[in-house]
């Protein structure tokens, strides 16, 4: 998924603890997935969310707990909304995959504000090797993504959809996730959607060759 920036809510004290928690997580999501987890200071997040130090400590006693909440409550949801639901609701996995790529490219081009990368990729690269809890949660999100794609491919094969015949569902799902993740990383570096467009084209070619073979 492409980076989506969450807007901070108005500053000030609140009698809505859950609303404040959401604002803290939103502010942290926007900061951690663009500037980076380590480069983000908690006092900046407090100011953006309109929270006191006591309120921040109440909801998230440590920065790590806030980081885990961002992964669990925002990044996992972004994967679900951007990738999993569109593919599962598509007529076939092949159509869903192409629609996701096309939608992300279109969104990035319309936004015109640069490519910030995939939130999951950004945090995975920064955090996975330094903490077992971060690593486990990142892997859980990736596994959910891969498994959902593989399940859709298996369903297509069972239904006789020829585009995916002969493919190993788990292996191809891993390939799709890896291809997208790499293309998004390249798009971030080049500040261009071209890697995503090229990647989508190559995946379509592989699927088309399977259809006619």
Précis, in short:
The chain has helices at residues 17-32, 42-49, 53-59, 63-89, 93-111, 119-127, 132-159, 169-190, 194-212.
Your description of this structure?
73% of the residues lie in helices and 0% in strands. The chain is an all-alpha fold. α1 (17-32) crosses α2 (42-49), α4 (63-89) packs parallel to α7 (132-159) and α6 (119-127) crosses α7. The radius of gyration is 19 Å and the shape is elongated.
Keywords:
213 residues, Tetracycline Repressor, domain 2, single chain, mainly alpha
Cα distance spanning the termini:
31 Å
- Residue share in helix: over 70%
CATH H-level homologous superfamily name of the domain at 71-212: Tetracycline Repressor, domain 2
Radius of gyration from the alpha-carbon trace, in angstroms: 19 Å
| CATH second-level architecture of the domain at 71-212 | Orthogonal Bundle
Per the CATH scheme, the topology name of the domain at 71-212 is: Tetracycline Repressor, domain 2
Q: Which shape, going by the Cα principal axes?
A: elongated
Flag low-confidence runs.
5-14
Architecture blueprint of SSEs:
Blueprint: H1 17-32, H2 42-49, H3 53-59, H4 63-89, H5 93-111, H6 119-127, H7 132-159, H8 169-190, H9 194-212
Helix pairs in contact: 1-2, 1-4, 4-5, 4-7, 5-9, 6-7, 7-8, 8-9
